[in-house]
């Protein structure tokens, strides 16, 4: 079968699937202070609908599927979905991105169901600051969730840290040290204009080059060759693991991007910053065939744009925030 390739000869291999728009945090850069209006349950894709759509993608050559949210672990019976996806043929590599607060409760079940890897989003290792950023005093639970992921055999376990100038950029070396001490990977992500309040400013971005300079000053590092994945990886020269940066603002990787997204309500997005979506839920619930789904997916991917244009006059913020799109 012809691979899923866009007009720029980029082959799609990675699908991000949001299973819910709900979250148990209200992060200051992700949700407005007054909270959000959650989608009705009947608007969300069922596990059967998600599995069917994902099976079409894997049939088109997609090899990696990541479950996201909102916070995916607030979706009831999530290990059931993981097991359904693990049973697909061909079987995709399965991963999950979570805030980790309830990971201790489901880590073993997710691992047994077939999830291969886990990423935990954590933007501060200081309890008071963490509570201020997430509006929840949950850092101990998150750290315990990371420990639980390691205990049940997830490998690798990674931490995603979004850096914001003047907020948490003084913790760069702290995170690097934590990763080294705990045997987990740390990836620093540049702050992107997807905050719900729309207050993003370019001067709030901490460039990845600066991040690497600060890490290297404390712990010498060397580059690791990598493929189309967005993270640039570096290993510590003393063998104590790796650190990565995702320079989505200062060094966009659009030219090699191989990922697409499915929102919790069944909208297909070919870019995190896309302004248009394709309604796959309507095809599924309207009696459409797998061939109809494939045709809609191919049309969307064929029309995928060259890049997001952050920082340029042509850039337009998408109408959905990060929690509504999926990580």
Summary of the model, kept short:
It contains ten helices and twelve strands.
Order of the strands making up the biggest sheet: 7-8-9-6-5-4-3-2-1-10-11-12
Shape designation = globular
Protein structure class: alpha/beta
Return the CATH class of the domain at 14-156 and 254-325: Alpha Beta
The amount of helix comes to 25-40%
Average pLDDT reading: 90
Name of the CATH superfamily of the domain at 14-156 and 254-325: Aldolase class I
Give structural notes.
Helix 1 packs across helix 9, helix 2 (78-86) packs parallel to helix 3 (103-113) and helix 3 packs parallel to helix 5 (139-151). The chain is an alpha/beta fold and 327 residues long. The protein has a twelve-stranded mixed β-sheet. The protein starts with 13 loop residues before the first strand and ends with a helix. The protein has a domain at 14-156 and 254-325: TIM Barrel. The chain has helices at 47-59, 78-86, 103-113, 127-134, 139-151, 172-182, 208-218, 280-285, 290-302, 322-325; strands at 14-18, 64-68, 93-98, 117-121, 157-163, 185-190, 221-224, 232-236, 242-246, 259-262, 267-269, 278-279.
